[in-house]
Amino acid sequence: MGIYAELVGNVLTSPTMKQVNTPNGPKRIVELRVMSATYRRLDDGTLEQKDDKKFPVDVTIWNEPHTERVMQHIKTGASVVVKGDLYVNPWVTRENDPQSGVHIDADSIALNLVRIEQVVFRARRVNESGGTVEGTERDGPVNESVGATEFDR
What segment(s) does the record annotate as region Disordered (predicted)? Predict the structure, then answer.
């Protein structure tokens, strides 16, 4: 059994999309790096980051339908919440020094509201039966939403 973790931190590297070969054929993934952030509340109510408890975490998003949204909305410096399977990734350097890092295969990634100043939601449109459906890029100009990108693997 693995470790399921929730990581709160700041995006260190802009997301990059890659195509990888899997047993089920080629698949698009998104990779990014997040610096974990641990805070403590001071007596005056403000939050202070605990520098001794931060470390970089590599994140991979395997859910293809949401890779475009992650590429569109998640940028360097953004505060995010990542949930998924966590594991330690060991390797050996060219100098033969053993190293290790932390990796999360993400089930979900969301913008942390801490740094959000404005949210603009996508316009809804009415279909022929009178119900509403979400707008898409094919519908013409649409305000992009800024907010969480949740997905299931």
Answer: 130-153
